[in-house]
Amino acid sequence: MLQSERHEKILQLLEENRLMTIRALASRLDISEVTIRRDIRDLDETGRLRRVRGGAEALSAQWDHSLAFFGQPPFAGRQNFHLKEKKKIAKRAVELCDEGETVIIDGGTTTFCMAEYLQDTRLQILTNSFAIARALMHTGNQIVLTGGMLYPEAELILDPFDAEMFSDYVPKKLFLGVAGMDESGVSNLNALILKAEKRMIARAEQLIILADSSKLGTRGSLSLCRINQVHTLITDSGITDKFAGILQKEGVNLIVV
After folding, report:
1. pLDDT digits over 27-41, tens only?
2. Within 13 Å of residue 154, how many CA atoms lie on the same side as its CB?
């Protein structure tokens, strides 16, 4: 059986059963568990299913709902896109944090990668990301979560970030992932998230954008802010000289990892 055929059959079985073990998939398809593991890894990396311990889970329902509501695939479906670049960007972002300071980390797959490098820090972190809060709950960081409705597809707590409690915090830095950034400015995809992000930008002293180069030169459906409102952009070496020149002209600090 060709790899493409195996992949489609695995996805079809998961559609029918939602969650299956490697052993069950191997038995149903009469394929070795080694091959099934490899196929699950490949499908997970391309965001077509979620790899779980001992098996795999269908993503189609989450995928459809997330596309309809957020305008993008679910968190799990995006997590492995450009993962190598995201981790480098996130590591550099953490290096910008000073011990004990207050920062905002917006929800997103790139900002989530910061959690791996925040295990030994002591920061006060304001976030709307359930995933980040969960990853850092047993560390020395103080985590302050927004209130509101939890959306599992995006691992976000949707809240306008205007609660009175947040007015008392003076965050130094805001770390933000975006859908796109071009000469017209920074953009995102969901109106509710955008409202919260605009309030975050108004609160923080420095806006630090985390974006791999695939986001640069592209534009989301909703305008978030102008380029000259960005203090720092952290990206990878795929950034073009033309776009780097635009950032320099606008006074944006550019960090290439």
Report:
1. 999 999 999 999 999
2. 23
